[in-house]
């Protein structure tokens, strides 16, 4: 088998393909995909779908055991730019209980990386190596239950090979993922790096991501200040119309502090409040109660509807006024 730089190839173990940009060490090739990233892969994991049209000399053809490519030098950009490094978890379409793990270097820096799994007080190294600028690497395909609850510890050292740059301090980052989150379709979003939707974890954030995070914190603090200035009666208030009761089930309207609570515990608290209101008003015939649950991912609304169908079958319910609440509220008529 003979491969030449410029050949069109298709991946055997995943969707996509691209153009061969180089071959290293006789077994490893780099494929330039449609997004402009070089994807390293083994030669036996691709199939050639088109040969380079231009006739090449013997010196440019790359055999499986060729060593000429070992002299390859990465052509660096003159601008260092900002460092940005991330992990992406994408659903494995072939095996529903698995995720594909990618390391993505969206910067002009070379990065030495180690990624390990915490085991009590020690780290078991899982992945290590060098990732070149503007490159993504498929690190592994993992069973979701293998990732569930495990703390990962990452360390990075950034540098440039042939261009001057500002010294970058070594970076350490740790994270932990719940298997339940990886099973939710809503956890995966469209992104600029993969064709498939993915759960993105920023290991080194760019300026935009940092500003977005600061903005989010500022907005949260502003909302907390406004909430503290409001009387507690806003948590459950009557409309001017005496026949209607409005109950806000957003967790921030029910509790001042939710730290330490899991999503399951938050949902259970919201449903308990819903049942409390329903029990207190179940004998108030024709009473209208608007439960504000928000649009979100629809879990709270779905649980409320299930409870109404199972426990309060004699009450009528419908979507509340779209003009006033959008899709985020349900009205119950006792």
UniProtKB/TrEMBL annotation:
<dbReference type="InterPro" id="IPR036781">
    <property type="entry name" value="Smr_assoc-like_sf"/>
</dbReference>
<dbReference type="InterPro" id="IPR018598">
    <property type="entry name" value="DUF2027"/>
</dbReference>
<dbReference type="Pfam" id="PF09640">
    <property type="entry name" value="DUF2027"/>
</dbReference>
<dbReference type="InterPro" id="IPR002625">
    <property type="entry name" value="Smr_dom"/>
</dbReference>
<dbReference type="Pfam" id="PF01713">
    <property type="entry name" value="Smr"/>
</dbReference>
<feature type="domain" description="Smr">
    <location>
        <begin position="256"/>
        <end position="334"/>
    </location>
</feature>
<dbReference type="InterPro" id="IPR036063">
    <property type="entry name" value="Smr_dom_sf"/>
</dbReference>
<protein>
    <submittedName>
        <fullName>Smr domain-containing protein</fullName>
    </submittedName>
</protein>
């Amino acid at each position: 088998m003979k491969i030449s730089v410029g050949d069109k190839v298709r991946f055997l173990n995943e969707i996509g393909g691209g153009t061969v940009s180089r071959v290293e060490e006789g077994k490893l090739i780099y494929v330039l995909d449609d997004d402009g990233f070089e994807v390293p892969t083994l030669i036996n994991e691709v199939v050639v779908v088109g040969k380079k049209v231009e006739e090449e000399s013997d010196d440019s053809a790359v055999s499986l055991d060729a060593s000429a490519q070992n002299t390859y030098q990465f052509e660096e950009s003159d601008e260092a730019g900002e460092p940005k490094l991330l992990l992406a978890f994408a659903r494995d379409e072939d095996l529903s209980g698995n995720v594909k793990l990618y390391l993505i270097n969206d910067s002009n820096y070379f990065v030495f990386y180690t990624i390990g799994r915490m085991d009590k007080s020690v780290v078991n190294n899982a992945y290590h190596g060098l990732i070149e600028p503007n490159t993504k690497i498929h690190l592994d395909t993992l069973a979701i239950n293998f990732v569930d609850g495990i703390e990962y510890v990452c360390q990075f050292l950034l540098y440039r090979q042939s261009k001057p740059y500002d010294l970058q301090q070594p970076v350490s980052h740790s994270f932990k993922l719940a298997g339940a989150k990886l099973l939710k379709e809503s956890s995966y979003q469209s992104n600029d790096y993969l064709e498939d939707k993915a759960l993105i974890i920023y290991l080194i954030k760019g300026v935009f991501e940092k500003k977005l995070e600061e903005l989010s914190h500022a907005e949260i603090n502003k909302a907390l200040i406004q909430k503290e200035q409001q009387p507690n009666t806003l948590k459950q208030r009557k409309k001017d119309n005496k026949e209607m009761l409005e109950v806000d089930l957003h967790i921030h309207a029910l509790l001042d502090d939710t730290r330490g609570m899991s999503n399951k515990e938050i949902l259970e608290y919201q449903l308990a409040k819903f049942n409390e209101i329903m029990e207190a008003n179940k004998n108030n015939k024709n009473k209208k109660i608007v439960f504000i649950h928000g649009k979100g991912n629809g879990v709270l609304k779905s649980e409320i509807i299930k409870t109404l169908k199972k426990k309060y079958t004699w009450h009528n319910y419908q979507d509340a006024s779209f003009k006033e609440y959008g899709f985020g509220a349900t009205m119950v008529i006792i």
